[in-house]
């Protein structure tokens, strides 16, 4: 359960900042750890939450719904 809660928090910060790098700095964890946490959360929820690009991250519709709920 704790892992899930921390994954939701990592997702929330990444969505809020719009950037994996900025999220890693705010959370004091590595960029790969942020990406891995979000990828795991997406796998657990069986849906894509973020669209990653060189400019940052964009929420999918499912990601928007989850972000609003958090």
Q: Can you describe this structure?
A:
- Helix content is 69%, strand content 11%.
- It has 4 helices and 2 strands.
- Strands 1-2 form a two-stranded antiparallel ribbon.
- Helix 1 (2-17) packs across helix 2, helix 1 (2-17) packs across helix 3 and helix 2 packs across helix 3.
- The two termini are 16 Å apart.
- The model has no long low-confidence stretch (mean pLDDT 93).
Please give the structural blueprint.
Layout: H1 2-17, H2 20-27, H3 31-45, E1 50-53, E2 56-59, H4 61-69
Antiparallel strand pairs: 1-2
Oligomeric state: single chain
Q: Briefly note the structural class of the backbone.
A: mainly alpha
Question: Overall 3D geometry?
Answer: globular
On the 0-100 scale, what is the average pLDDT? 93
What pattern of helices and strands is seen along the backbone? HHHEEH
The main sheet orders its strands as: 1-2
Distance between the amino and carboxyl termini: 16 Å
What is the number of helical segments per DSSP (H or I, 4+ residues)? 4
Could you estimate the helical fraction of the residues in percent? 55-70%
Number of beta strands: 2
Note the beta-strand portion.
5-15%
Largest sheet: 2 strands, antiparallel
Low-confidence stretches: none
Rg on CA atoms, Å: 11 Å
């Amino acid at each position: 359960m704790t892992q899930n809660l921390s994954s939701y928090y990592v997702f929330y910060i990444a969505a809020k900042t719009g950037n994996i790098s900025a999220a890693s700095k705010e959370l004091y964890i590595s960029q790969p750890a942020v990406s891995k946490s979000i990828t795991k959360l997406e796998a657990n929820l069986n849906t894509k939450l973020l669209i990653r690009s060189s400019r940052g991250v964009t929420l999918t519709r499912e990601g928007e719904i989850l972000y609003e709920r958090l």
